[in-house]
Amino acid sequence: MIVLLSVRPGTLESTMTEDLSPAERYAAARRRAAEQATALASFREMYDFGLDPFQIEACQALEAGKGVLVAAPTGSGKTIVGEFAVHLALQQGKKCFYTTPIKALSNQKYSDLCRRYGSGKVGLLTGDNSVNPDAPVVVMTTEVLRNMLYAGSQTLLGLGYVVMDEVHYLSDRFRGAVWEEVIIHLPESVTLVSLSATVSNAEEFGDWLDTVRGDTEVIVSEHRPVPLFQHVLAGRRMYDLFEEGEGHRRAVNPDLARLARMEASRPSFQDRRRGRMREADRERERRQRSRVWTPGRPEVIERLDAEGLLPAITFIFSRAACEAAVQQCLYAGLRLNDEEARERVRALVEERTASIPHEDLHVLGYYEWLEGLERGIAAHHAGMLPTFKEVVEELFVRGLVKAVFATETLALGINMPARSVVLEKLVKWNGEQHADITPGEYTQLTGRAGRRGIDVEGHAVVLWQRGMNPDHLAGLAGTRTYPLRSSFRPSYNMAVNLVEQFGRHRSRELLETSFAQFQADRSVVGISRQVQRNEEGLEGYKASMTCHLGDFEEYARLRRELKDRETELAKQGAAQRRAEAAVALEKLKPGDVIHVPTGKYAGLALVLDPGLPAGRANGHRGFDHHDGPRPLVLTAERQVKRLASIDFPVPVEALERMRIPKTFNPRSPQSRRDLASALRSKAGHIPPERARKQRSQAADDREIARLRTEIRAHPCHGCSEREDHARWAERYYRLRRDTSQLERRIEGRTNTIARTFDRIVALLTELDYLRGDEVTEHGKRLARLYGELDLLASECLRAGVWEGLAPAELAACVSALVYEARVGDDAMAPKLPSGKAKAALGEMVRIWGRLDGLEEEFRISQTEGVGQREPDLGFAWAAYMWASGKGLDEVLREAEMPAGDFVRWCKQVIDVLGQISAAAPASGDGVTVAKAARKAVDQLLRGVVAYSSVG
User: Fold this and answer.
1) Tens of pLDDT along 486-500?
2) Are 292 and 235 in contact (CB under 8 A)?
3) Residue 377, SS3?
4) With CB atoms counted within 10 Å of each terminal CB, which end of the chain scores lower, N or C?
5) Strands 420-423 and 130-131, bridge-based pairing
6) pTM to 2 decimals?
């Protein structure tokens, strides 16, 4: 029937209707007339291609007044459904808000809608830009809509539809809560359109939407419009990952399995070094190596070009490696564009970068970047200037850039489809460790392959790496497990806004409708069933441990108490040794030479910074190795590392003292090499002290002696089947312990969100932000401050910490509220502005320390995603210099930061400064803070920070 709707009169349709009776022809005509009268019919005429069944189904549900959740693969055309919501809103004289997770995607969608409906009907709100905000269609980031809802903005009047693009972002542990806040707080009259990547629990998410938003249709499509073929590139050969088996079942290519076995049989590097190879082995390895290797980046691009598989995106999980890949291709003489394409590239680049001052171009690496673009090669990552990234995206879509080396951030919604996607490795750094990518991440990355309407098929190419397991890769490629997990947690700002609008009781009820609580309540059902099964098992174990000589349960209890007491004493001994080690660490001074007793960096080391708790740390509680001193050391192997208490299980003392040169720079390899050499010369001959073995506490413990006496005197101690009974008793106690844990989980998952809200409200009441259902003046100020450190910002305003600061000094202080270093704190203390700014930053850290203590008292845990991390002072000097008018070259050199990161952090500082100017008291000293904040915005918003591609 869908085909018939798109066929024009006089063709197949008229031929078929001739075979119908007059009544049937009349009914068909009535049906066609009704369909032509729908909004969907006029919408379909706007496109020169037919809609897919899932798109039609979703649009029909929308026109019927239902909300929709559309879960479909990347590139399948989900946004058509969002655009139909825009079409309906304009037709009905209502407003439509189109929300996206990132500004780049908002800018892209704004441009698309402007081309279709004209710039007069479309607006943009992203925090950076405000273009035509009163238009009937406004594209915005999700945070902007959340802030509107809490502020009760007049812009919400007449709102009929909200499209939430990339709604699976609600799994994001840092920002995901915003999506749920919007879904919960949108007026009931608003129809919600949720667009998601393919997730394995779409029905569960749809059930929740049905509960909180009313009638919601769930449409799931697994079909990729462009089929995807998987390959492995090893040496000169491109292997298919799968081959068709019997009954169309896909099996791993046996050639790849053979290759993996062959690789596994190769002698190890150590064996080759030790000369443990026979001549026959060496000859076999030479033959294997001639066939199998990991091709270099230029080689991969040339191979793809020869196979007709460009344009391609190569995902490399490192910004520096993306830039290095471009340089490698340039050095290899790779050229993917002809002269005409080069001229078109140069013309577009010069047009888009015309507003950048000439003196900044060299600092930004413009000329090297342009050379790569002219050859059809580019990098794409978050460290790039936004303007540069947008140019790369535009050139790639136009086919003028054919090879892009990108980090995984490119996979998040930006419209840059390619014919092929290349994955260099299947391991990436997740912020804590190198971990295998998940099936969901693999699907997201490879989903970029295959351009609808251009390519017949898409290709995912994984480069062969030594130790690769083809079965593991096939599991990644064949699994579609990508569950949506809520990351929703109440925050201080959320609490005061909710209480102000709804009161405490109603706010608590609202939070219990969150997807997080919905999932927790559902999981309790399965746990309850497991508890019932365990209780049945306990009865069986109890019967099996019965002893004819006496009460074996009592005897087993005595044995358990003895074991627990021995374990407790062992822990006490370990804790005492840790405490002694911590005291010893606190005595260390810069220049002390120590011997690190254990861990990855065991051996000789020079203390650069004692790393006492008052210094800069990451602000997270709940991890033992983050407590106490964390000395920054230079090892004899030239590495500068910040160690943790876990590296010092025993006390450590200074073996020697050394002078650290004032010119020492921990980031300079030469500087590290010279000082490490001096360290080895000074103390390399000193042997480490051996730890003395201490007498066990258990040997003198009265409780252990008593329990052993009672065990020996118990009747069951003499049973010939004692150990058999004991094994059943051990199973009984283990199962009882597991059952108790399950019962605690049930208790812990019931009303978890509401309980966290209660703790936050109790802390805010203690600080006089709330009095029952009343929001105080301090609370109203907090309600206008959004961000991770909302409460700290409010307390700083309240305490007058920023009064009397110059605009540049205030910018430096506010930077500590937003900045977070990408790497760990394996660096020296950050450089800070002197004078008032330094004092204010120190006061901010002290206020955070007081709040941290309060959070501990009220059981608000950062490990659960709630609470205030310690302010990071790492961007203060860069923000101060830029706001003071220093040049881009000098600021970037001092900050040791890519231009894109610098711009992003500056814009976040500007955003919070705008909040502070609105939230600062309107009288008294607060006026000076508000003025300084507005002036700081003006002083930061210049040069590269002010460039914008929209508006």
Assistant:
1) 888 888 999 999 999
2) yes
3) strand
4) N
5) unpaired
6) 0.72
